[in-house]
Amino acid sequence: MTKNVEEYNLISVRYKPNWSLKMAKNAEKDNLVGIRDSVRGCLVGIAVGDALGMPSEGMTRQDILKNFGRIIGFCDSQSRFSRGLAKGQWTDDTKLTIATVGGLIESVKSNAFGNLYVVGLAMFVNYIQALEEHQKRGFGKTTRESLTARMEGNNPFDGRFPTRPGNGCAMKSAILGIFSDLGALFNKDFGEYDEEELVIMVSMLTHNDSRSVVGAMLQAHIAGLFLFGWDLRNEDNFSWIYEQAKYYEDLVIKIPYVKDGTPKISEILAKIPPLLGATDELIADVLKTGGAVYESFPTALAYAIKYQDDFRSAVLAGANAGGDTDTIAAMTGALVGTRVGLSGIPDEWKRELEDYENIVSLADKLVDAVRDLPDGE
């Protein structure tokens, strides 16, 4: 990790989400049972989507049809990116999300939780451990290079590596939005940083393309909206997301080391509303399904909105989309899983999912850790 603590003093403009507006959308979520169900749904949703999309990662839709027919459940991997993984197992999307949650819990329990640098250090240590233990899980090149550079005491953004608009930040950031919203729900003191600064810091451990960071910020923010029951099929509510995207884009380019690029995510998001009544295949064709965050994130979001109350259809759309199927289905699963809760995820997938009980337990530990924080003013 860089020795320059100021790298994480990222933004001077502080944006405080309108919690009353979020919570007014669904007052029923203001209860512990519903909260636990949603947090469990987020983490299990990521893992289920990841495991469903894992076998077909990197394949075209035609290849998927040839090898699987249509994916309707867990399968053994036939992807070169996850060779050797069996049905129900997951990839780096879930492993890095688990590492993120572990870092949050560890930092919450430390006496210096209010210091953003402490949170970043906990994340970094967990990511390195995840990389060393699970290299066969399909870690992305940008994540591998950045973490290795930091291990060696170097800044990964010093120009030695190309800047890539990968989705490695967005795939693990839904839980960051949930975490921030838990603090608001329980009226806890999160110190001197907010959701946006947290997501930016975690993202910039590995990525410095503006679109990677913006995608992560949006995934986190939308997970929070789904926690409170927002209906993003509503035109006004989706307009909120579009405006947030533009706001984040203007904000992120002010951060040191961030490199800007095109197309902007906001430009792609504008294509989503007319597609919500289209076939899953047309959505994939228009928005694209590659590993670039400006392709995979909008596609995952479109499926999450189209099937916002139907977890099965949402994640299967991602798993069969072609391209970066594990990450698309994982991001979709995170969002819809948050909205419908663990109770809305099919039982057969819970039974067959790798490490299911531990993932549920981790969700509960996160909720309990936030509840144990000092109350805010």
Question: How does this structure look, described?
Answer:
It is a single chain. The chain has helices spanning 19-24, 32-53, 61-68, 92-109, 116-133, 141-151, 174-185, 195-203, 210-227, 235-252, 265-269, 280-287, 293-306, 311-319, 325-340, 347-352, 356-371. The chain is mainly alpha-helical and 377 residues long. It has a single domain, classed as ADP-ribosylglycohydrolase fold (Orthogonal Bundle), CATH 1.10.4080. α2 (32-53) runs antiparallel to α17, α9 (210-227) runs parallel beside α13 (293-306) and α14 (311-319) packs antiparallel against α15. The longest helix has 22 residues, at 32-53. It starts with 18 loop residues before the first helix and ends in a 6-residue tail after the last helix. Residues 1-29 have low confidence and may be disordered.
